[in-house]
Amino acid sequence: MPPPADIVKVAIEWPGANAQLIEMDQKRPLSSIIREVCDGWSLSGSEQFALRYADGPQLYITEQSRGDIKNGTILRLAISPARAARQLLERIQSHGIDARLEALKELAKLSADPTFAAEFLNMEGIGTLARLVESGTHFGEMLAFTLTAFLELMDHGIVSWDLISLSFIKQIAGYVNQPMVDVSILQRSLAILESMVLNSHSLYHRVAQEITVGQLIGHLSNQEIQTYAIALINALFLKAPEDRRQEMASTLAQKHLRSIILNHVIRGNRPIKAEMAHQLYVLQVLTFNLLEERMMTKMDPNDQAQRDIIFELRRIAFDGESDPTGTEKRKAMYTKDYKMLGFTNHVNPAMDFTQTPPGMLALDNMLYLARVHQDTYIRIVLENSSREDKHECPFGRCAIQLTRMLCEILQVGELPNEGCNDYHPMFFTHDRAWEEFFCVCIQLLNKTWKEMRATAEDFNKVMQVVREQITRALAMKPSSIDQLKNKLRGLSYSEILRLRQSERMSQDDFQSPPIIELRERIQPEILELIKQQRLNRLCEGSCFRKLGNRRRQEKFWFCRLSLNHKVLHYGDLDESPQGEVPFELLSDKIPVSDIKSVLTGKDCPHMKEKSALKQNKEVLELAFSVLYDPDETLNFVAPNKYEYCIWTDGLCALLGREMGSDLTRSDLDTLISMEMKLRLLDLENITIPEAPPPVPKEPSSYNFTYNYS
Pfam families given for it (predicted)? Predict the structure, then answer.
């Protein structure tokens, strides 16, 4: 008979004594259980003790968190959080250097515990740590532990960042600006400054007075701290007023600074980790968001300076053609030229730029092309304006719609998504990367228009093909503008048609009844193969990011399925693993038999709890939760869509339910088509005798391995 749901069997340790094996009744007050444990070792003053986990982060157990205790958990009897906080506060103020160092080391570890942190902060411990830093008398390990404890304590959000003094900020900024400072101190100093900027408007201005982007760029050559440096740059960029943000963007756009990011970060001799990829993505998004003002600015048809830009486009395209005398003749000529330039409104092309987006940004792009790539601009305009077969590509209309499309693809004006790592190296290789990107794409559009032999009625079809060409090329992560051109050359209109046909083959081919019957016979085999692949991936395990912390520090946990498919093992990690994590390092587990269901998206408890994340569509699409007895949840946010599909499908397969992700449907169609082609190819090579016909054999088993890369 299984034990009651409110009873968990645990082991409790105490230094120098044999462990106690008890059945913990979760309905009993925790203080009563601690008193009983203390009595077992003849310890008096049970109110001075508490229970902590013996493994992992070794967090204190409270009435609120005790529900997380599982059967077989090893606990440890320890002094209470209040007592520990009081003792550590006394020790870090002692005169003995060694005692103070050990106290700060222990404090740095305990500060991550919310229960301990609340007690330490109630004793105004954060002020004590701040004064130790402000004194300037701590160096090396002692200072590193002090800063670590300070950062962990502030990260709980119990104390406001606005209480931080100016002298503390100056001291932390001083560590960042000093040429020879220990790496661990630099990392923590940069992280503290980042949290200040992100959590307090008033502190942003104080930090911005002490730290410049130029000083931070200097740290990017050090691979140990470059992630922290870019994170602070992004924080300053994100919180800066509009006028200051443009100034920062100009600094970042300078060639020597951009080259440092390119050569020491993107092209460095170490692979880029997930956190650095995210920071590069954030920097890319914030840089492109500077285009939002122009994108949302309508052209004023009565503004002569703005109209002069259109006149310049006409002049560059048709240079050498003298203006006729007489107002009417000049108007007629201008109308003809604007039609040849491909504007929708031939009489007053300024009206073409009154729609936002793309607003004035489209005109900026066109002017850049005309001035910087003049030969290309003239060629595109003249070769289309001279055609009389209705296949001319309207340059003006195309440039405006292309600008809008590029803004949508690169999400100009949208805030960065939490957990997204989708940065493009090529945008860090050129001082005017946006404009150059447009110039490449407008040439692609003109080329695709000709390949499709399009007319004005085909405009939207051409734009759809061009969007597909651009998104496919970007997905290949070209490392430079030139490499983007090469990728796009390989994605001609005929190649797009071939790719579309290949991708549709599973839906469009083999529609005759015998083939449909064969498909239905094959499908269970393929589904079983996909199911085994999903379960094998769960056995290998995956690393997930913890999203609860306010600052962008890498905190991870790992989850994997036991080889016999009976237990889910999981546990916290200090850093992202390079390979498979052994089961013995994963301290927590859930029997598969206890799992009741799998929730996804907005139905997940952690998506309902975190209002900030509810607004983040991308995180919402990657969230899933495992519900298990008794009414507990294990919450996930997958690193990408592929891992999300693998895990949700695998968990459904584990529970004997249908695998319904887009990835499974795609894999099913692809693998069925492959197997059917193989079997039909075998049939084509069979010589059928006239008589008697042979007894048909059962189809061969599906015996090749599908490898996901």
Answer: ELMO_ARM (PF11841), ELMO_CED12 (PF04727), PH_12 (PF16457)
